[in-house]
């Protein structure tokens, strides 16, 4: 029976740990994986713009010896003619062994997975889920900190629309002794659904604050996010909130020496480029980790030993 990945909770903690272990083995022994997906094809169906996620999936498949086909915008697909996601998924299943789909509408990859005859990976659906970014984040935290439990995780910026934050909270709340510090303007607080269904229901320790500087000394992980123009209905609200938090070297003076700074990227201006040379800045290492964890995921869903 085929497996899909639509939501990070589709994977058990054991499966996540196994994926991380496979990714670390790929990092250590890349030559052993170069022919694992020979003659296999990945279809990348991207209905909205992407740089890192699409190229990361494509690079992952090529490094496994496979091939890639697909499209990078809706206008270059039959969606421009009115074809449904369901019909596209059934059609592409005739050509590819596995599908990675990004779509602006929440639930579109789930619909695709019900019609596709091959595994479907959600590569981001609106403000909903982005499970492979979460796997990337978990691998990065594991490699930077050596563990996924006993951590204070600060999430900063757009916590209302940030799908990466919602997925990260859902994933890390399953590990022992993880506490969250949620840093945002009042207007961009984490949604009530995340607060009640993920944090309060599971008894996860968290607090909310509007001050990054006040939270900084306690953090083991700082997960920065951009304020996303594409999620706002009102341009004035976006302009007012977009510069709410800008991480600078000055703001890092009270941070722990082993703090790990993550960002799902793209960055606009919420992290000063002066921070890039700080050894605690992990976000470009995080990008590379994304390729390795997607390689591990492709192998798992294609049931390649």
List the helices and strands and how they pair.
Blueprint: H1 13-28, E1 41-46, H2 52-63, E2 67-71, H3 85-92, E3 98-103, H4 108-115, E4 120-125, H5 131-145, E5 151-156, H6 163-172, E6 178-183, H7 192-200, E7 206-209, H8 212-215, E8 221-224, H9 235-241, E9 260-262, H10 283-301
Parallel strand pairs: 1-2, 1-3, 3-4, 5-6, 5-8, 6-7, 8-9
Tell me what you see in this structure.
The chain is of the alpha/beta class and 305 residues long. It is 35% helix and 15% strand. It has helices spanning 13-28, 52-63, 85-92, 108-115, 131-145, 163-172, 192-200, 212-215, 235-241, 283-301; strands at residues 41-46, 67-71, 98-103, 120-125, 151-156, 178-183, 206-209, 221-224, 260-262. The strands form two sheets. Strands 7-6-5-8-9 form a five-stranded parallel beta sheet. It has a four-stranded parallel beta sheet with strand order 2-1-3-4, sandwiched between helices. β8, α9 (235-241) and β9 form a beta-alpha-beta unit. α1 (13-28) crosses α5 (131-145), α1 packs across α10 (283-301) and α3 (85-92) crosses α4 (108-115). The longest helix has 19 residues, at 283-301. It is globular and about 55 Å long. The model has no long low-confidence stretch (mean pLDDT 91).
Could you give a short description of this structure?
This protein is of the alpha/beta class and 305 residues long.
